[in-house]
Amino acid sequence: MEGKSQEKEYIHAHEEVIEDVQKKLPDDEKLYELADFFRVFGDSTRIKILYVLLQSEMCVYDIATLLGMTQSAISHQLRVLKQMQLVKFRREGKTVFYSLSDSHIENILSQGMEHISEEE
Question: What pTM, to 2 d.p., does this model score?
């Protein structure tokens, strides 16, 4: 049997389960969007900013002061967070105040912290 590939036989004992789960899977585009969403949480600076905004609405200057970073660095990260709809803003005169966009973000942060704290 040289030269012929030997194929393994796979038995699907639970084809109904496979079909049911396959019907419930989101399409690839939605899964890519979800991956991009979670990728935003992969940066510790963005996580710090989100945790700051979890406590209080703040302007760029105050966030930069609190985190010991430049306003430029904070503005850059806030731009990313705005693009992903994780933060919102409002103007008061010349000052722009940022806050979390909705309670979903608070839940994600809380559940993430709860998950990593379980192992302590």
Answer: 0.80
